[in-house]
Fold this sequence. Notes:
Blueprint: E1 18-20, E2 23-27, E3 35-42, E4 48-54, E5 60-63, E6 66-69, E7 73-81, E8 92-101, E9 109-118, H1 121-146, H2 160-174, H3 193-212
Parallel strand pairs: 2-9
Antiparallel strand pairs: 1-3, 3-7, 4-6, 4-8, 5-7, 8-9
Helix pairs in contact: 1-3, 2-3
Amino acid sequence: MHQQKRQPELVEGNLPVFVFPTELIFYADDQSTHKQVLTLYNPYEFALKFKVLCTTPNKYVVVDAAGAVKPQCCVDIVIRHRDVRSCHYGVIDKFRLQVSEQSQRKALGRKEVVATLLPSAKEQQKEEEEKRIKEHLTESLFFEQSFQPENRTASSGPSLLTVFLGVVCIAALMLPTLGDVESLVPLYLHLSVNQKLVAAYILGLITMAILRT
Length: 213
């Protein structure tokens, strides 16, 4: 007689939960971000029921905070921020999605999603751009200082590397900027504004170094 194969028992809390995104960012000055959507996926062969919990439920409205997901389907969960105030800027809240089989009460899996309210999307982008420019400048300065001759005399002129870097920066500034449609230069040679700012900054440092020699 053939023994009937038993389906492996699912252990409580060990079932992977698939949700996207795993981070929600709300911007106070952009009302379109006050409404976010979480998508819960069910890749399994059995239906799941879910429940959404929150550490600060008074700040959010969760549409359909509990429900079910059919096998190999997904469901969208709408989350609205209803308490947009400056005192909440930068505070990290957490949502927990718990899933279980429809016929059982124990939670088979859980997943946490963090939520943050920021004052302005433009300020956030500006900070990221400034951070990237600062990193580029630091790398450029380190590169230049690493290749300075150790025993350079006061009478010696600028090194070949310094002259080469200066020529490269001048060439970069002469290249067209991204968005210049009428330029005959290939598109892959178009530089962004930030890249040209870095080139201009490095060229200024090289000019000062040459004048001091």
